[in-house]
Structures are given as structure tokens and as C-alpha cells.
């Protein structure tokens, strides 16, 4: 599939309602930033989001309010570094990928609770 940009795709189309695994970006323009963030959350999927702005207040607002596994500022949401947690929420998944998460999946967590361990002898 050739890369494509879909501008103002209707909200009731599959391109808007379903996850697209391909070189496709949906592009919408808004006059109100908070409205754009609200609309970005209007989906069952939430892998990654890309926000393009030079305004740090808007960037932090987007990070705090966009319901996605990650928010990329001024880059496409396909950008990933191996050491960063990568994954989605909602119907896009519940786990993260990355070195730390792979190691956690290979470990067995175990807890030891100790009480009255002073000079007492139980053996």
C-alpha cells in the first residue's frame, strides 16, 4: 500500500472507526484545541497519538488528556525507541512492549514477609 494522508475523512467511515495497520494518517483541522483532544478520544482504539504544536501548554494538555498508550510531540506516532514503553489502551491492548516489560514477563515475582525475626529461634 502506498503511504497516504486522508484529510477530513467522515467520522462514520471504517478509516475513522477501525485501526489502520499501514502507512495511513488521518488529518483533521480544528479551531479549538480542547475540542480536538476530545475528538481524538472518540474511538475504541488508542495505541499512539501524534500532536503537532510549538505550544508546550498544549503539548502537556494533550499528554494529560489524550487517552492513548503514548503521545508523540511533533512526530508520527510510529516513532518508537526500544527502551520506551510502547503499547495501547482501550481495544488497542493492555500491555507494554520494551526491554523492561520483556524482562518483567520472564520473571516470577515473590514476596517474603518477616515478623519476629530478632533473636528468637524456631528450629
TrEMBL record:
Protein name: NADP-dependent glyceraldehyde-3-phosphate dehydrogenase
Gene3D superfamilies associated with the record: Aldehyde Dehydrogenase, Chain A, domain 2 (3.40.309.10)
Residues of the Aldehyde dehydrogenase domain: 1-111
Family classification: Belongs to the aldehyde dehydrogenase family.
Catalytic reaction(s) noted: D-glyceraldehyde 3-phosphate + NADP(+) + H2O = (2R)-3-phosphoglycerate + NADPH + 2 H(+)
Organism ancestry: Eukaryota, Viridiplantae, Streptophyta, Embryophyta, Tracheophyta
Gene Ontology terms for molecular function: glyceraldehyde-3-phosphate dehydrogenase (NADP+) (non-phosphorylating) activity
Protein species of origin: Selaginella moellendorffii (Spikemoss)
Keywords: Oxidoreductase
Amino acid at each position: 500500500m502506498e503511504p497516504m494522508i486522508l484529510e477530513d475523512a467522515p467520522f462514520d467511515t471504517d478509516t475513522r472507526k477501525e485501526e489502520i495497520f499501514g502507512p495511513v494518517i488521518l488529518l483533521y483541522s480544528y479551531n479549538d484545541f480542547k475540542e480536538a483532544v476530545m475528538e481524538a478520544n472518540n474511538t475504541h482504539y488508542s495505541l499512539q497519538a501524534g500532536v503537532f504544536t510549538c505550544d508546550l501548554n498544549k503539548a502537556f494538555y494533550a499528554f494529560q488528556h489524550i487517552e492513548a498508550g503514548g503521545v508523540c510531540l511533533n512526530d508520527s506516532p510510529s516513532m518508537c525507541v526500544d527502551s520506551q514503553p510502547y503499547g495501547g489502551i482501550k481495544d488497542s491492548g493492555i500491555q507494554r512492549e520494551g526491554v523492561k516489560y520483556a524482562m518483567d514477563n520472564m520473571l516470577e515475582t515473590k514476596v517474603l514477609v518477616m515478623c519476629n525475626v530478632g533473636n528468637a529461634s524456631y528450629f
